[in-house]
Amino acid sequence: MYTDFLELVKRRQSCRDFNDKPLDSKVVETIAETAMLAPSACNSQPWRMYLVTNEETVKKVTIAVQERGHNKFASGAKAYIVVCDKQATLRPGTESKFDRNHFVKYDVGELIAYITLTAESMGVASCILGWINYAELKQAVCHADDEVCNIVVALGYTDTPIRAKVRKAKAEIIKKV
Ligand SMILES: Cc1cc2nc3c(=O)[nH]c(=O)nc-3n(C[C@H](O)[C@H](O)[C@H](O)COP(=O)(O)O)c2cc1C
């Protein structure tokens, strides 16, 4: 029984209060390398991660996630992992039943979960950011035209204590059938 993992899941929370401690780019790389172990439909791995660790590009990505006054706390982020969706290549039998990109959102969700939980396991705080100015983000990371970047994960350190989780009632989410 991996009791530490249960603790890790409980500890992971969205960080909106990064402190000034710098984040080593090697730590960001380890987080991304570990996240590569995430599962995906037919092992298609329809994703790419752009690691943003240099100060100039971090500033550009910060602007891209702060459109219309959103995500002000991102000014404290020390690095970002910009996650892009890519076209999936499924096994032939699977591709004849489903649209080839049917599973991409689920796959990328797995990747993001792996990123945030790996970060937490290394003592690195994270916040998933979906509010993005796509044109500014593309300018910042120069991602390929066939990639769609819908999610950015902000990374850094924090002194904020663990909050109580706010979740819907168990009976609303979990049904025994
Ligand atoms: C797809 C996605 C997009 C999100 N976008 C943002 C965002 O733009 N800004 C933000 O502050 N939090 C964002 N979040 C974080 C959620 O608000 C947060 O996960 C949720 O409120 C639960 O809180 P917790 O992560 O602390 O457990 C996003 C989360 C997900 C999964």
Structural commentary:
The protein is α+β, with helices and mostly antiparallel strands and 177 residues long. The chain has a single domain, classed as NADH Oxidase (3-Layer(aba) Sandwich), CATH 3.40.109.10. The protein is built from seven helices and four strands. It has helices at 3-11, 25-35, 55-64, 92-97, 104-121, 134-141, 170-173, and strands at residues 47-52, 79-85, 125-129, 148-156. A four-stranded antiparallel beta sheet has the order 1-2-4-3, with helices on both faces. Helix 2 packs across helix 5 and helix 3 packs antiparallel against helix 6. The longest helix is centred in the middle third of the chain and has 18 residues, at 104-121. It is globular, with a radius of gyration of 17 Å. The relative contact order is 0.24. Bound molecules: flavin mononucleotide. Flavin mononucleotide (FMN) binds next to strand 3.
Provide a short characterization of the protein structure.
With 177 residues, the protein is an alpha+beta fold. The chain contains seven helices and four strands. Flavin mononucleotide (FMN) binds next to β3.
Domains (count): 1
Unreliable residue stretches: none
Bound molecules: flavin mononucleotide
**What general outline do the C-alpha atoms trace?**
globular
Number of H/I helices: 7
CATH topology: NADH Oxidase
Helix content: 25-40%
Mean pLDDT across all amino acids: 97
What is the CATH class? Alpha Beta
Task: Indicate the radius of gyration in whole angstroms.
Answer: 17 Å
The class by helix and strand makeup works out as: alpha+beta
- Total number of beta strands: 4
Report the major sheet.
4 strands, antiparallel
What would CATH call the architecture? 3-Layer(aba) Sandwich
